[in-house]
Amino acid sequence: MNFDKIFKAEKPKKQEDWLEKIRKYYKGDFHSHSLNGNRLEIDGAKEEMVHSDTRLMQYADKLGLDFIFFSEHSSNPGAPKKLEINHPICQSLLKQKEKVDNLNNSQKYKTKAYSAVEANIFFDNGEAIIDVPNEILAQLDLVVASRHKIADKLDPRKIKESLLAAINNKDVDIIGHPYRYIEFYENDWNYFKKYYTQDEEISANLNYLEKNGDWDSIKQIIGKKDLTNNSVEKYKILFDNLKKDYWQTWNEVLDAMAKNKKCFELNLSSFNPDKEFYQTLLKKASSYPELLFSITYDFHNLGQLDNYDNKNYTNNPPDIKNPARRKGTQRLLQLIDLLQKNNIEPERIVNSSNDNLNKFINSHNK
């Protein structure tokens, strides 16, 4: 992989460590978006700040990536809708495959392109579904299924039901950013408070504590202090039960992912290796030896790398001139450090090599 070329590295011996580390874990990307994802059809959404497919291919080529998947959005992620086979978006996904074939046949790029979709997981009349019919999904090289806009997103039962709908779908390959917007930290008052928003009495009492600055009681509820105030004991019980149900949900989801050979996406645009929640979740995921992972930047535009906050990561790869690319590389290295800490070797990273890619695709009868 030619990361040294794009970063203009002179390759003194001290740089070999970080370059080699990247090469071992990241040889291609399963999750990227281009202008082809601009769904001007009904039920679609316009992508903001995305590049053309040729621009992304040029960038992937410069990085020396072996492959890149164009996983364009299906129906509007902000308002997903169940699509029929003849819907214009479904037909657009099939035509997208033709565009990818043309990119490969042009022989302009060393990187190989693949056709994919990022389908929506959502509830339709109370049922957890995927928005794209299986007859369309089966014709694509890869299917990423992700939760975006979803009802009762913090409810552990809804989390499990929605993710299992994708995990049990035979044509889904990767579960995209399954943790996004549902992070539950160790002493997470905000999650607890938001979860009970729809219960008027509980919500009013929790807001009263916060409005009056009764942080001593709040800390007792969320376990940061021993319980001494009996008047908040019932909220402490509610918090503990919610937390228990939440992590039990992850146990069931991760187990199902491993058994169904679904890939757990480590999305660098939302998975922050520096934060306690993600460290806890990855440690739990690592305990399922059959569970596979993918590493992705979820590219919409290259400028998004500048939003990464790596202030606690001191490994600063030398000679990377562009600040955004430096942050992007730091985030990847920080994730790899965390993977190694949890004994997750490159063999469990599906996009760490062409061999792993082919094994994964073949195991899904693609």
Describe the fold and architecture:
- The protein has 366 residues and is an alpha/beta fold.
- The protein is built from 13 helices and eight strands.
- It has helices at residues 3-6, 16-25, 53-63, 88-105, 134-137, 156-167, 189-195, 200-211, 215-221, 233-259, 276-286, 323-341, 354-363, and strands spanning 28-32, 67-73, 112-124, 127-130, 142-147, 174-176, 263-267, 292-296.
- Strands 1, 2, 3, 4, 5, 6, 7 and 8 form an eight-stranded mixed beta sheet that branches.
- It is globular, with a radius of gyration of 22 Å.
**Proportion of β residues?**
5-15%
Distance between the termini: 26 Å
Largest β sheet strand count, sense and barrel closure: 8 strands, mixed
Shape call: globular
Which structural category do the helix and sheet elements fall into?
alpha/beta
Low-confidence stretches: 6-12
Fraction of residues in helix = 40-55%
> What is the helix tally?
13
> How many beta-strand runs?
8
Radius of gyration: 22 Å
Instruction: Spell out the helices and strands N to C.
Output: HHEHEHEEHEHEHHHHEHEHH
Average pLDDT over all residues: 91
